[in-house]
Design goal:
about 280 residues; alpha/beta; eight-stranded mixed β-sheet; six-stranded mixed β-sheet; 9 helices; 14 strands; globular
Length: about 280
């Protein structure tokens, strides 16, 4: 791969917020735990007056556990832009039309290999076809999980519905779901095994805009790290987008720089080496 870094451009010294995707970006190779030095780097950013934003398709409770040592220092963009939190306050939430959500879940239930996940603010609702899915979500992914006998009767307002394929999603399967619901909702991949469906025009970029308004931070004062298609709007929004080396080609093209790991780049920022 050619080196996309541009030595003549310096990282802005007035960065006020650094956002990072989780799976595939901060967590690579299927990792479910942060590297030992990650929270220390985030704490050093906080002391510099830079807000760290965990920008993920994961739920709020999952992210709080993941970032436990710095959980009260950071901001959260959850469920691929449907929810955001800062200092324990919900900054924004978007909801999906219930009839559309019911139609999506019925289609997933009819698909033999697919499992459905309905996101709530504090828990994930599932009606597993195979109990291994429940144990995966609870013990491996680390979500708050609620088993329900009939997911269509869940009363909490809908905002994100996810499809899980244990053996991975094929391009044909992704195309099917995008064609089936893409006119009515945002349909994006969330990794090899996941497809997330949110209200139309909702994505990480729209979620970050809401949070930046609350924090009085301009997009050009932000940096973001990403690897997959659901990071594209976030990457396009911020002043300094950085792709990890294992990112999709389109994300690499959208970045003004790239890095093997987020931690290496944060070390560079904290050391004062702003030579992109």
């Amino acid at each position: 791969m050619s080196d996309k870094r541009m030595p003549s451009i310096k990282i802005p010294s007035d960065i006020r917020l650094i956002a990072s995707d989780l799976d595939g970006t901060l967590l690579q190779g299927g990792a479910q735990r942060l590297r030992p030095n990650t929270c220390g780097l985030i704490h050093r950013l906080t002391r510099r007056g830079i807000i760290f934003l965990a920008a993920s398709g994961r739920q709020y409770a999952n992210l709080q556990r993941l970032f436990a040592p710095v959980r009260n220092e950071i901001a959260y963009l959850c469920e691929n832009g449907c929810l955001s939190f800062y200092e324990g306050e919900m900054v924004h939430r978007v909801t999906m039309d219930r009839a559309l959500g019911q139609e999506i879940m019925r289609e997933i239930i009819r698909t033999p290999s697919a499992e459905v996940l309905l996101s709530g603010v504090n828990t994930s609702y599932i009606q597993p076809k195979d109990m291994s899915y429940y144990y995966h979500m609870r013990d491996v992914v680390g979500n708050n999980v609620t088993l329900v006998p009939d997911i269509l009767k869940t009363e909490e307002p809908y905002f994100k519905i996810s499809i899980y394929e244990r053996n991975g999603l094929t391009d044909e399967e992704i195309a099917f779901w995008q064609e089936r619901f893409g006119r009515y909702a945002t349909v994006v991949t969330g990794g090899n095994d996941w497809l997330d469906i949110m209200p139309l025009h909702v994505n990480k970029g729209t979620g970050i805009r809401k949070l930046l308004q609350k924090l009085d931070v301009r997009p050009e004062e932000c940096m973001a790290f990403g690897d997959n298609y659901n990071d594209m709007e976030m990457m396009k929004l911020v002043g300094w987008p950085v792709a990890v080396d294992n990112a999709k080609p389109e994300i690499l093209a959208a970045g003004c720089d790239h890095t093997p790991t987020v931690e290496e780049y944060l070390e560079k920022i904290l050391s004062g080496d702003f030579t992109g």
